[in-house]
Amino acid sequence: xxxxxxxxxxxxxxxxxxxxxxxxxxxxxxxxxxxxxxxxxxxxxxxxxxxxxxxxxxxxxxxxxxxxxxxxxxxxxxxxxxxxxxxxxxxxxxxxxxxxxxxxxxxxxxxxxxxxxxxxxxxxxxxxxxxxxxxxxxxxxxxxxxxxxxxxxxxxxxxxxxxxxxxxxxxxxxxxxxxxxxxxxxxxxxxxxxxxxxxxxxxxxxxxxxxxxxxxxxxxxxxxxxxxxxxxxxxxxxxxxxxxxxxxxxxxxxxxxxxxxxxxxxxxxxxxxxxxxxxxxxxxxxxxxxxxxxxxxxxxxxxxxxxxxxxxxxxxxxxxxxx
Length: 323
Fold this sequence. Notes:
There is one protein chain. The protein is mostly helical. Helices cover 50% and strands 4% of the residues. The chain has 12 helices and 4 strands. The strands form 2 sheets. The chain has a two-stranded antiparallel sheet. α3 runs antiparallel to α4, α5 (122-140) packs across α6 (159-172) and α8 packs across α9 (224-234). The longest helix has 24 residues, at 37-60. The radius of gyration is 20 Å and the shape is globular.
């Protein structure tokens, strides 16, 4: 790994910019289902751009981590679940939006698709989780707490270590930190598939499914729009067969058979979540949805972490991709 000596690139915790538009409570954000023509055109362009970008990412990341292909009890998958739990618990404690937590998991998965972490290096997973959530908060939140406010429990990371990890993430992801998530599409797909006749609980159910499926898939495997439309379809009380799903998807003329395959695959996973067939503990996401105050149990000896990018024992290794 390269030596990070560019002080100007380090994240400054005391300079927080507030975006003009912020995400409010997810349910209230979608209280109206009347779409303006400009909004429809914008989202359709966004889907097209997303399709092209994810096609490039998937070809680059084929050798990376894929949580759906690892053994059920592999340490990486377990560590990822622990990271997701920490991210969503911390979201509740610090008052972040769900969009921010989701975006941080996207960074997490994208990073692991390009770099590996040695087995058992749980401190590196926690450090990565902290840095991803911090970066997502800087992208989405009006108020970003200082790094010392993040509840890190058993570890005591120095601020400069977290900042260097943030920079490593930014460089690994080529500074492409786009904030598009499935939540950006829910309004559009509910309107497109159901019009104004959609039950009012559709949005809340779709949100729950978007959050729940995080545990079951790597977010680099499915485009945000694919996850969004699968969630909207799965939020319906009527289970769909493959032909029925394909008929509904004809309203999205720009999508082809491969998109329908991915939608159906994601839809089936969400159906299994709804029916309780997924073995991953449901408490992981549901507890943070239901409560804005989640206590984290700490204790024991805290370990102060410092690392050198030139250290041969550093657990973060870049995955080489053959041309």
